[in-house]
Amino acid sequence: MHVVYPGSFDPLHNGHFDVIVRSSKLFDRVTVAVLENPSKRNQWLFTPEERVEIIRRAAAQARLENVQVDTFRGLLVDYMKRIGSRVIVKGLRAVSDYEYELQMAHLNRQFPPHAETLFIMAATRWSYVSSTMVKEIARYGGDVGKLVPQATLEALKARMQPER
User: Fold this and answer.
1) Candidate list 24, 85, 131, 135, residue with the active-site label
2) Catalytic residue among 13, 16, 90, 135
3) Catalytic residue list contains 16
4) Helices 150-160 and 131-139 meet at what angle, rounded to 10?
5) Is the dihedral of CA 124, 126, 130, 135 positive or negative?
6) β strands within the chain, DSSP E
7) The dihedral formed by the CA atoms of 117, 40, 43 and 121, expressed in degrees to the nearest 10
């Protein structure tokens, strides 16, 4: 089974990566699909291409051979038709995530390929981590080493270096 794990992943954190690792053990093929959202262009910390590279490096370091990374823009269901997948994987941290993701799952089923959404509960140790929090801590020079994969940590350190 080929599943798609969509998101912005700006940046990839251990909660995201845990869903990727667990999905790679459950499914034959996992495509991590990085959303290119033009309306958030000036809000990105990393470009979509940089996010793809970070995720590819993290997957390679973990030897996740059935994980591929791609970008998409527009509707997720259109992207899924193009790559031939009918299953979406989403991670859930809290009830607030569930309410939003449930709405999205119902909407995605209305359009071909009538995708099914499978929810993976966040591991307890990562249920409090969000990209927004990681970015905020990193901007103020805090140590996010326990919150992100090594590939993300290296990219954050390079991005957050003070100008000389």
Assistant:
1) 131
2) 16
3) yes
4) 40
5) positive
6) 2-7, 29-35, 67-72, 87-92, 116-121
7) -10
- Tokens for 16? 């995201």
Look up 93 and say whether it is catalytic.
yes
- H or E segment to which residue 77 belongs: helix 76-83
Phi, psi of 28 (to 5 degrees): -65, -40
Mean pLDDT computed over 101-119: 96
Q: Which helix (H) or strand (E) holds 113?
A: none
Question: For 81-107, what is each residue's pLDDT tens digit?
Answer: 999 999 999 999 988 889 999 999 999
Q: Which of 29, 93, 109, 159 is catalytic?
A: 93
Closest CA relative to residue 129, chosen from 148, 113, 103? 148
Stretch 107-116: mean pLDDT, rounded? Answer: 95
Predicted model pTM: 0.94
Any catalytic annotation for residue 23? no
Whole-number pLDDT of residue 164: 40
The reply to whether 135 belongs to the active site is no
